[in-house]
Amino acid sequence: MLRYAPHLAIAMLSGPIIFGLLATLLPAFGYFPALGGNEITARHFATLFAQPGLWRSAWISLSAGLITTLVSLALVMAFFAAWSNTRFFARVQHLVSPLLSIPHAAAAFGFAFMIAPSGWIMRLISPELTGMTRPPDVQILNDPWAFAMMAGLVIKEIPFLFLVMLAALPQVRPLAHQKVATGLGYGRMAGFLLVLGPPLYRQMRLAVFAVIAYASSVVDVALILGPTNPAPLAVRLVDWMNDPDLTRRFMASAGAVLQFLLTGMALLIWLMLERLSGVVMKRLAASGRRYSKDRAARLAAGSAMMLAAGLVLAGLGVLAIWSFAGYWAFPDALPSSWTMKTWSRHLDAVGAPLAVTIEIALAATLIAVIVTLACLERETRLGDGGGSRALGILYLPLLVPQPAFLFGLQMLFLAAGLSGWFWAVVMVHLVFVLPYVFLSLSDPWRALDERYAKLAASLGAPVNRIFWRIRLPMLLRAILAAAAIGFAVSIGQYLPTLLIGAGRWPTLTTEAVGLASGGDRRVIGVYAFLQMALPFAGFLIATLVPALLFAKRKGMKIG
Amino acid sequence: MSKKAERAPTATGGSLCFHDVSIELAGRRLIDLDTCIGPGEVLTVMGPSGCGKSSLLAYVAGFLDPVFKVAGSVTLDGSDITGLPAEARRVGLLFQDALLFPHMSVGGNLAFALPHDPAMNAATRKTRIGEALEEAGLSGMADRDPATLSGGQQSRVALMRVLLAQPSALLLDEPFSKLDSELRQQIRDFVFAEAKSRQLPVLLVTHDPADAAAASGRVIELTG
């Protein structure tokens, strides 16, 4: 059984993607007998290209993918260069890390509540600074250039890239190199960027690609913050896919192929940018300039990071406030009355999606943890690494734009009569949950001193006993932490739940995003608040359980 | 047949014998050994790090990485253990760190080592563990958290844990090198005395000449 664990994991990750992509390709070219498509034709592409504003939609998606990634990576890199290995850095790290677990939709709502014309920032500075007593008549959210959407994506991708860079940092031996660079008279930031920047970037390249793929095909954040006329490509695809007129699915599939190519093109452009910046970095490094006066740049990098993290955190706070707000007139900074009415009125309605969210997340997380443990245990028993080879597969679900394979997958389930099947939803969630669980558990697993297991074996313990009595309890903290991350990832899934669940499994995320167009801030506050509270509850349990179990074991404190 | 039934007989007092054992890594011969360690005898293997002395221990214990090329066989108390899995070999291991399982109590660590025996009930097992602790001068410490023990106490618990598993030989991998000099002497005497009283053959790997002198047995020098 254990022997085949990696095969199972690879099948779980690549199966839905490969079959999904194929099943997207066929209807795109007109072949899908269940919907009456029996001939191969390019007609649906012609229909697609004739849609008004299509190229503008595609352009928004492409530029959003690239600009979002560029800005978030530059901010994170600059912050690391300016502040790594300082106390300020450690503080910001504690501030930023928990933000990773917040669903994109919740963060986007919080951001919208901050920056909208009648948002919290405007309320804070009005009327004192602006003199305004009613919200200004400007379009900030859903602007046609997608600035709000990109900004919302940037503040949510920063925690991701931050943590990836943090994990990669020790592998480039930062302290030794930085000492050499500063010893030669280089400024702190220049020394870091020129010496550590390139190897550090190489370590986290796949994660950066994942951000490009995500930002160029995002749906939920685009629905909340993105332009509407025309909307980004992925949003329009989902509209067509959900059209009551089933024949529009041919065009939607053709559009999903376009989305696939578009994300591929964004990645290609990024590869060219990589080349270019490589040349520039070499020139800069060879020029001998020291850039030793970087105080202003350091302050700017620190402020930008604080602002990004602060916007997310404050946004979450405002979400919570709205859910308890009674009368709240503009430009008051706080509601003039507080009430439980919104909560009590929606408690019944929120119960079902809350339960569904937890069920799906628990099922997907449990399976992901078991499969991950089986893979790692097999690796330990057979003593073969295979780590680097498997890594590419783990990133596969994060590199393929979601609509490109989810559309096909939905059609497959439809054809097989499994549309809206609970375990089908769990299966697609697993595609995204498994990589995160595996990536977060494999490092602590491999770091466990192997002499404990050898010792246990020499004491006469067979391999199974070593797993259950030694490795599992010693790694319990890491296992639960990985499970909490998987749980959070599942909660945040929008498109997989919507498409594969065929509307039969409403979750907090699908319901919250569905409320976006209505604009009732109090109700959105309730859903988005629960959306962020649930992952937090997961992390709380993951911290408390080992702390209680091993309360009397000092050696288990730092896991 | 269960793993337990496959295990070698429990009697102590046999010899640990190497029959034309050779270990090679990438065409380089690290170890050539053809000798027996008698009951209660200590054979010391000395040499600089990287000379292959630790791979000799790994080979006897059953953990040698397959990149090493090995020939020959090892017998313990007359039966060949070369093909047995690590858990069936009945060789006790001590490392430079005590490596007490941090999630178990001191008593839990010892109970993990004490083999299951249908004839022994929970109370008897508890008594056995209490006796072992007493022998190590640690009476009444069964419920303690191993992390709260001093370095010397941890070393003694580690030895009692190995002995409770009723090994037929002891393999010591620089077990005293992390202790301060006064404690080192004390633990060294304790380990050798316990091994002698149980008539266990001991293979000691070290780079410290004082260890070899204290073992007062044969010494093999590896040059690497």
Q: Give the spatial strand order of the biggest sheet of chain B.
A: 6-7-8-3-9
**Which spans of chain B have pLDDT < 50 for at least 5 consecutive residues?**
1-12
Strand tally of chain B, please? Answer: 9
Q: Can you tell me the overall shape of chain A?
A: globular
Helix content of chain B: 25-40%
The CATH superfamily of the domain at 14-103 and 166-221 in chain B turns out to be: P-loop containing nucleotide triphosphate hydrolases
Name the CATH architecture of the domain at 14-103 and 166-221 in chain B: 3-Layer(aba) Sandwich
Q: How much is the average pLDDT of chain A?
A: 93
**Can you summarize the main beta sheet of chain B?**
5 strands, parallel
Shape of chain B: globular
Cα-atom radius of gyration of chain B: 17 Å
> What is the CATH topology classification name of the domain at 14-103 and 166-221 in chain B?
Rossmann fold
- Quaternary arrangement of the chains shown? heterodimer
**CATH fold category name of the domain at 1-34 and 346-503 in chain A:** MetI-like fold
Q: How far apart lie the N and C ends of chain B? A: 42 Å
The CATH superfamily of the domain at 1-34 and 346-503 in chain A is MetI-like
What class, by secondary structure content of chain A?
Answer: mainly alpha
Could you characterize what this model shows?
The complex is a heterodimer of chains A (559) and B (224). With 559 residues, chain A is an all-alpha fold. Chain A is 73% helix and 1% strand. Chain A has helices spanning 5-28, 43-49, 54-83, 87-96, 104-115, 120-125, 147-168, 174-183, 188-203, 205-215, 220-225, 233-241, 248-287, 295-324, 341-382, 387-399, 402-415, 422-447, 451-458, 463-474, 476-492, 495-500, 508-514, 521-549, and strands at 31-32, 37-38. A two-stranded antiparallel sheet of chain A has the order 1-2. The radius of gyration of chain A is 25 Å and the shape is globular. Chain B is an alpha/beta fold. Chain B has a domain at 14-103 and 166-221: P-loop containing nucleotide triphosphate hydrolases (Rossmann fold, 3-Layer(aba) Sandwich). The N and C termini of chain B lie far apart (42 Å). The interface between A and B is medium-sized, with 25 and 36 residues.
